[in-house]
């Protein structure tokens, strides 16, 4: 089969690899209908996250079950399924608590020896615990299928950030990061009943999506000017709930500085380096909480799925470009130079 | 009157200062019956927190109202009162939310121009919002009075840490720090229904108090050995709720490493330096939350007071030495060399 392989920073190729195949009784093989490129894939692309030459890449996909191992009981060939960005057994202590990302048998797509999502098919370990069935009829609705793909990562990650930030009915929320996750954070905050949602971003193509998703205010300034603008919009005090969806020193500092005393930062931007931009002294004096991390999206898919199916939320607009499998390297380049927000892959 | 003054690191003196007196209509003057020395006073004593030569010191006291300003309505001369470690107006947006430490008119005892708690009397700004009345009969019960003094800081701070760590009925809790705050964290966790409380500490005089307060296990190891011991006591995974009551790089690192994935650190140790010991990458991967900061003890006094009065909790054992006002410099030396846990002052 053909799949995306990373050989070195900026060297992404689509090439022939061994067919995805059942290796263990809990496995399924899924033929990929939709995949995409994640902002976090860019860290590997740019060489900021280490990869072994020849590793697969991509961790967001949905598709049709092609084959199941002998121990798989909840799925059968022909099922339409979406995969969260990590696999998990669904039965360990952590999975039982909903923290699927800490599953004792969990792992990441594209790890050495495992298929990535950006290919024709994927071997799925612990298929029963990992995959979530979708209504078969969704396969014929392109917009719906695209929205459902967002459940594999960005929508659930935005939701995790909103929960971490403590968003609830009537909240004032500020969102740092105008990437797909930040935008999904806006949508998640709106869904949770936030009254006021301030999106920080300078690119109107992105902030227009933020508005579509429920942002009531857009702050186009950067750095201290952005902080001052958010404070001005919030009676001088900042937002109770802040979503941090970037992960850099600057973005974390901005998040702290626009959080109201006693508020919380829901952080889902993968941190770059240790202690990134955190001034614990400032957080201490102002009782600012920090909650979040790698999102256990598997836990969120069922409830978010209902809202995508009903049309209550539609994350599809975060995908602003579509490519074929062969065009995946172009997709990386487009996301790397920020000419694309999030690239959809139709293998 | 006589009061404690800090002239330079390690130069603490008790000397004649101007009498505490009403300056504003919201003021009260409180004659101090009990005060004490805080672990955080040691940072000034050691020169690690800057003070202007001649500043007063001490932020924990209870006593008798001697005089009230014309705008004070809830207190009168003769009332027995306890003061939280910051004053607050009790009416601003933050006070209304219970975050008294962010009061827009709040401040710290011993700030330049203000009395400290380690003296014969204190001018209390915003007396109505700050002071909490105690039953008059407590004045004749030495043990009770000592327990009530703990409400000014350590008991409420331990409670704040336990809340930050998410302690609830049945929780497994680990406590980093065997100072008075850490020990009060044990007591607070027990009060909130924790089932298992693991106290980290090497000094049996302190860990004996931890046991008295409800610790079910004591870990005497340090560093990585302590982390391994806590993991072994918790099925390999760590504690869901971790109280951090030190504030150093090492203690914060220990706290992160003994927190179960998906758990929370309630931190109340004043951070020394920025980003102290925090590896955000580790916290991110394991969804560890960080909550806490300077404790709004004013919010907690009413509920904790009931339990001290009923005998349900007695924090008095954290005071293991008593001195007169003139002996306060000896008290600092004793806490600095760790021969005393927490020094009570009877002016």
UniProtKB/TrEMBL annotation, chains A, B:
Residue ranges occupied by any Alcohol dehydrogenase-like N-terminal domain in the UniProt entry: 25-135
Keywords: Metal-binding, Zinc
Domain Alcohol dehydrogenase-like C-terminal: residue ranges: 180-306
Statement: the UniProt record of this protein carries the keyword Metal-binding: yes
Cofactor(s) for this UniProt protein: Zn(2+)
Molecular functions (GO terms): metal ion binding
SUPFAM superfamilies: GroES-like, NAD(P)-binding Rossmann-fold domains
Keyword Transcription recorded: no
InterPro entries linked: ADH-like_C (IPR013149), ADH-like_N (IPR013154), GroES-like_sf (IPR011032), NAD(P)-bd_dom_sf (IPR036291)
Stated name of the protein: IMP dehydrogenase
Organism listed in the record: Streptomyces roseus
